[in-house]
Amino acid sequence: MRKLMIILMSVVICLLSASPLLAEVFTSEGIWATPEEYEKATGNTIEKFQEAPMFRTMVAAGEIPPVSERLGKEPLVIRPLESIGEYGGTLLVIRRTIEEWGIVEWQIRKESILRRNREDLANPFPNIAKGWELSADAKSLTLYLREGMKWSDGAPFTADDIVFNFNDILQNEELSPGPSEAWHPGGERIQAEKVDKYTVKLKFALPWIGGVYALTDGWWGSQTCQWGTGAFVPAHYLKRFHIEYNSDADELAKKEGYDHWHQLFKSKQSFTQNVEVPVLSAWVVKTIAPDYITAVRNPYYWKVDTEGNQFPYIDEVKGVLADTGELRAAKILSGEPDVSSLAVDIGKYPVVMTTAEKNNYRVSIEPGPLDAFTAVKVMLYFNHTVEDPFLRELFSNIKFKQALSLAINRDEVNELVYLGTAEAKQATLSSGSPYYEERFARAYAQYEPQKAKELLNEIGLKRDKDGYILRPDGKVLNLVIEVAPWYGSHTPAAELVRDYWQEIGLKTSIDHAGGGEMWDLYAANKSQISMWALDRGTYGETMVAPMWWSTCQFQGQKWQQWFATNGEKGEEPPAEMKEWYDLWQKVPYIVDEQERIRTGKRALELLSENLWFIGVVGNPPAVRLARTSLKNVNLKPVAMEDDIGVDVFQWFFEK
């Protein structure tokens, strides 16, 4: 039956391959830090600035200042991907969950201090900051901001907004009880110094070239929300809720139903909860409802095209909730959204193509960058410190994990679940990473079920009359795979893995954990095996901070606790795991690139030898689509998640 399905899927792909796919490449060319830089580079001059008709009406009525005053003296100049746009229209997009806003949220998140076109730090370029300078010893980073740039409420954006974030939020124990993932190089928090109104210096405890990359990131370098991961906030708005700036902040919090000032502060800080918080994004959130959100054009947005037209071109963005894969697919089949990138998995591609022409969609499944955000789409993480003593013994036995890995038919998973667009792969980073070696990706990744059975026999495991492995008490061993709902393709992938393992005598079941239950089970040390991805593993990200997968997350709850408390709690890990952890802790602060690469390679070698977690398939492309009338849309994936929600401000509807 599986072979028949593979043949049918292959035929479908061959038939659909005739559909043209976009192959545009976005680079930093066509971006100038200021109008002055644009004139120097091109010889062209922007004589005056233009704005959307709705703003001309508001200016005439005296409701907002003229566009030249709103933009400030140094707006960012961008040449649109295809052509100068037309103003107007409403963009309809899909939200995957109540918490995740898709393109609307990412337009706020993506407005980072600096920008990049790839994850490897080869080409950072200006965004909120017009320039930057890393000191010779890499222990400080100076940022040069735009004179006259403003928040969405018209207040100036200055060095105070960065200094307040680093010194008064990230260093406040009530607002930030634990160190931010990125903003504590060497274990010490960053100090921000205001040089002048438009210049700020970030000081590090040790050399840290990853600081530049961190400021290009959509999480670390953008506006700080309630999660405490960003680089700036609207200080003029938030100071009134901070106890250091308002002695009545606790009373103010109680009036609004909170017990403490920091609870109200986080609520006011959140652009996903509070429509009043000023932002720097192209659109400002107007409505937050359970099933939809709306965002309207920001009159103070600080980017223009090469003819001086203020971005964004589109008036309004609306995000509608579709919290299941089937519902998202149904909306796409009916032609509801104007654009989509992460709404449906590759398995829905044949179905999407049946109505693509009718719905005036252009569709792409072009592969992502080599150094992709998600290195492995399907991962199996063993909780080596699970409470069950017998499972602990098995998970600590390398032959047992080798057997589990060799029992998986990765090529078949790729064909049946991902239409052959992914890659059979062991747990490791992307092939574009300088840490990558082919031997890491192939270690115990062959399909050898007979060898897997032999390994189980070598361990001395006993079987019942049906061939299933028994526990010491004579009962059948049952492995449980936890699956979270975020990746729709994980359920069919888990079902195949279950079948493969049962074929070698390991009874396996699947627990479809809802929401954050998979994380809760692991935190309680009750999970056995967690299915997730290996993401946040680009070369640049490893230069910023140790990523979550290097800290024992899902691999051993007690080990992770031991590392997090410097040995005060939890259980001491084996020497190999301590070496793995220590190597990734060192990587971000190694200045010499060759030494950094050697260190990363050694860490991945340890993983290939110990199999603390195993991979199944690499990162398949997402189904990305856009209305044919929607212009300046680059459907080629970017390294951050395979998302196309980049530079939405330049999209426009052709009339």
Describe the structure.
A hairpin with a 7-residue loop joins strand 4 (114-116) and strand 5 (124-126). The chain folds into 3 domains: 1-96 and 288-368 and 621-655, D-Maltodextrin-Binding Protein, domain 2; 112-280, Dipeptide-binding Protein, Domain 1 (Dipeptide-binding Protein, domain 1), CATH 3.90.76; 378-462 and 528-618, Roll (Dipeptide-binding Protein, domain 3), CATH 3.10.105.10. It has 655 residues and is of the alpha+beta class. A 5-stranded mixed sheet has the order 18-17-19-16-20. Strands 3-13-11-10 form a 4-stranded mixed sheet, with helices on one face. Helix 9 packs across helix 10, helix 14 (398-406) packs antiparallel against helix 17 (449-459) and helix 22 runs antiparallel to helix 23. It is built from 23 helices and 23 strands. The two termini are 49 Å apart.
CATH superfamily caption of the largest domain: Periplasmic binding protein-like II
Give the CATH topology of the largest domain. Answer: D-Maltodextrin-Binding Protein, domain 2
Mean pLDDT: 89
Main sheet characteristics: 5 strands, mixed
- How would you describe the oligomerization state of the chains in this entry? single chain
Strand content: 15-25%
Q: Count the E strands.
A: 23
CATH class of the largest domain: Alpha Beta
**How many helix segments?**
23
Strand order of the largest sheet: 18-17-19-16-20
Structural class: alpha+beta
Based on the structure given, which CATH architecture of the largest domain is correct? 3-Layer(aba) Sandwich
Taking the alpha carbons of the first and last residues, their distance comes to 49 Å
Gyration radius, rounded = 26 Å
List low-pLDDT spans: 1-27
- Shape summary: globular
